[in-house]
Amino acid sequence: MNPFRWPFRAQFLLGFLICAGLLAYAIFLQLQMGLEPCPLCIFQRIAFAALGLVFLIGALHGPSNRPGRVTYGVLAFIAAGVGIGIAARHVYVQMIPPEFGATCGPPLAFLSETMGPFEVFRTVLTGTGNCGNIDWTFLGLTMPMWSLAWFALLAAWALLVSLRRMR
């Protein structure tokens, strides 16, 4: 069965289910395997949740005209683009040798109590905590590398689905 021949709603629902599955797996790793997320991991989760929400709303709405579909595709692409930026920053932080001290700062709870939301976001993305630790790999790739790949795939999926010719 070719997923490119599925209706728009089913294709966007697939995007939502992938995001939900990735978030569920991240929560499983945290709660069952004891892998504590760093601030950049949390921001990636938020980006996956936002992307999944766009996919879900697009699937529920199922616009029948091209401009509506393109709008959902662009919104999903933007959400995925934010995720790509966060995941790329996380990969960069992990690839810097530990002696250079690339980390992402104190725990997010502490930052939230002592700073405003924009300062927290800026502090985390400038890289100062435990984001440089590599606690999990699969096929030689770290979790942020997998997140980056999934964000890129989902961004491409959103554009392909929304820009394809309507029947």
From TrEMBL:
**Which GO BP terms, alphabetically?**
protein folding
Write out the annotated subcellular location: Cell inner membrane; Cell membrane
* InterPro entries, A to Z: DiS_bond_form_DsbB/BdbC, Disulphide_bond_form_DsbB, DsbB, DsbB-like_sf
What Gene Ontology cellular component terms go with this record? plasma membrane
Spell out which residues lie on the membrane's Periplasmic side: 29-46
Topology in the lipid bilayer is annotated as: Multi-pass membrane protein
List the Pfam families hit by this protein, alphabetically: DsbB
Coiled coil: which residue ranges? Answer: none
Q: Where are the transmembrane segments?
A: 12-30, 42-60, 72-92, 145-163
Q: Which GO terms describe its molecular function?
A: electron transfer activity; protein-disulfide reductase activity
Q: Which UniProt keywords apply?
A: Cell inner membrane, Cell membrane, Chaperone, Disulfide bond, Electron transport, Membrane, Oxidoreductase, Redox-active center, Transmembrane, Transmembrane helix, Transport
What ranges are annotated Cytoplasmic (topological domains)? 1-11, 165-167
Disulfide bond positions: 38-41
Say if the entry is tagged with keyword Glycosyltransferase. no
Functionally, this protein is described as follows:
Required for disulfide bond formation in some periplasmic proteins. Acts by oxidizing the DsbA protein.
Please report the name of this protein according to its UniProt entry: Disulfide bond formation protein B
